[in-house]
Amino acid sequence: MGEEDYYLELCDRPVHFEKANPVNCVFFDEANKQVFAVRSGGATGVVVKGPDDRNPISFRMEDKGEVKCIKFSLENKILAVQRTSKTVDFSNFIPDSSQLEYTQECKTKNANILGFCWTSSTEIVFITDQGIEFYQVSPEKRSLKLLKSQNINVNWYMYCPEGAVILLSTTVLGNVLQPFYFRAGTMSKLPKFEIELPAVPKSAKLNLSERDIAMATIYGQLYVLFLRHHSRTSNSAGAEVVLYHLPREGACKKMHILKLNRTGKFALNVVDNLVVVHHQDTETSVIFDIKLRGEFDGTVTFHHPVLPARSIQPYQIPMAGPAPVTSQSPVPCKLYSSSWIVFQPDIIISASQGYLWNLQVKLQPIVSLLPDKGRLMDFLLQRKECKMVILSVCSQMLSESDRATLPVIATVFDKLNHEYKKYLDAEQSYTTALEAGQSRSSPLLKRPARTQAVIDQSDMYTHVLSVFTEKKDTSHKFVIAVLMEYIRSLNQFQITVQHYLHELVIKTLVQHNLFYMLHQFLQYHVLSDSKPLACLLLSLESFYPPAHQLSLDMLKRLSTANDEIVEVLLSKHQVLAALRFIRGIGGHDNISARKFLDAAKQTEDNMLFYTIFRFFEQRNQRLRGNPNFTPGEDVVGVKRAG
């Protein structure tokens, strides 16, 4: 397979850390996305690396036993290390503060700490097998204060830093999940919910493993993803991913089921709002988009993979070492290795190779893998870096070799303009609220973000339509049909059509001598009235005499000031058109000769200058009985034509 066949890839600048081995333990902190390499319990060094910071943090700590968990608070201010099942040790990493360690024991008697999570730079949660304890850390006093605790039997826990939610697995079977939400010093208990197990358990023992659960934000909403290895319905073979929507308020609800149609070992990532499911046995991955239309059975929506299963793009590991040694060829990375561990949303770690990658989606290869242009647009419009790919799809569907039918082209234009209109409306509401002075009363008023899915008229004109109309091998009927289809779509969404699109239509019609069609378009107001359009029509009079009258009618409808029209025409060097216009409305006796002669001189067209000069001489003769200009007319340095 060529590079164009892979739609998933590992980032080209991974975080490289020391491989896991008997002396070096590797830990990952999902909140800060940092990898900790701890040598000999920290005595011979700890190195901390994250995807964003290229400068690793290095330090040593006393070896006080095996490290079970190690994490920095947000902003790397305080380090927390768990070495026993009862206590967590803290060290300040704040300049000029005490370096002495301080310790906190869990409050619940006979409880064992399963782990901990930082929810801010000074707030931490201990999760024990008997509940949850929420603390405020005071680095200056080197002490912790219990803010809130909750007793509950816990099998395992999971933390989603993006949503600031901790999920606890409770009950004997482990399938009742209790979420807690943390914000600014508060801990809120959200409604618990039950995960439907694939079959009725035979024995009362833990049936739900944390390996089969993930939490991730998809399209701004928090979901719990459950990897169900066997469907509840016996007639359906293969595993599935069940998505439970976890709102801030209200009960958790089963919303989507992703059909995998295969069994085996799976792992989940979320990239650019897509759920990626990796399958170890076949060494391939599939992607699901819950925004695309699925099959709704009245309660949940069933989705199938958007594209055929593909491997992640082959990856070469660069050889590390001194420059002369690195001339060795890079080593191919073993993809889908059993030593890979995935973390949400998009992280893959190979502890045995010492790499942390971010998984990425490549959009260009998807274009050829998704032939349905409407579905392709629905998919692309939801992606972060979509603009240039969408514009290339538009150009491609208008090309001779890959031309789409007009109904398909219309569908694509409508999908783009639907998104464009949503943005324009949001922008309008924002401006209205701003003018009404609501920004002071509502601090939440935010300017709408212009995402790459907003493809406006200038994007379409520059990258697609103007290039398309220049192509010699395309039939002019098709060109005009496409331009009119785009204008129809804009009108349908009540978007004001920019004059340059109308100009493009007119130029194309004139180029092919389709004046009868031009006349019809103007007569039936297919092309909206505008000053630039009227000026363009005036300039066409020499090719098509009725254009003069069509233009005047348009300007009258626009109630444009006559002198303004003359100024516009002169600025476009349409000196004769300006003169004809002013004669047409009977104002030629009062106009400034100097203004017209200057404009004619700027064109560097001697014949034009002569014509204009003769016109004003004749006017002088008619009005004053003498062809000469008066000193007041300020026509200095202009020789009398003779």
UniProtKB/TrEMBL annotation:
<feature type="domain" description="Mic1">
    <location>
        <begin position="383"/>
        <end position="631"/>
    </location>
</feature>
<dbReference type="InterPro" id="IPR015943">
    <property type="entry name" value="WD40/YVTN_repeat-like_dom_sf"/>
</dbReference>
<dbReference type="InterPro" id="IPR049040">
    <property type="entry name" value="RMC1_N"/>
</dbReference>
<dbReference type="Pfam" id="PF07035">
    <property type="entry name" value="RMC1_C"/>
</dbReference>
<feature type="domain" description="Regulator of MON1-CCZ1 complex N-terminal">
    <location>
        <begin position="26"/>
        <end position="144"/>
    </location>
</feature>
<dbReference type="GO" id="GO:0005765">
    <property type="term" value="C:lysosomal membrane"/>
</dbReference>
<dbReference type="Pfam" id="PF21029">
    <property type="entry name" value="RMC1_N"/>
</dbReference>
<protein>
    <submittedName>
        <fullName>Regulator of MON1-CCZ1</fullName>
    </submittedName>
</protein>
<dbReference type="InterPro" id="IPR040371">
    <property type="entry name" value="RMC1"/>
</dbReference>
<dbReference type="GO" id="GO:0035658">
    <property type="term" value="C:Mon1-Ccz1 complex"/>
</dbReference>
<dbReference type="GO" id="GO:0010506">
    <property type="term" value="P:regulation of autophagy"/>
</dbReference>
<dbReference type="InterPro" id="IPR036322">
    <property type="entry name" value="WD40_repeat_dom_sf"/>
</dbReference>
<dbReference type="GO" id="GO:0031902">
    <property type="term" value="C:late endosome membrane"/>
</dbReference>
<dbReference type="InterPro" id="IPR009755">
    <property type="entry name" value="RMC1_C"/>
</dbReference>
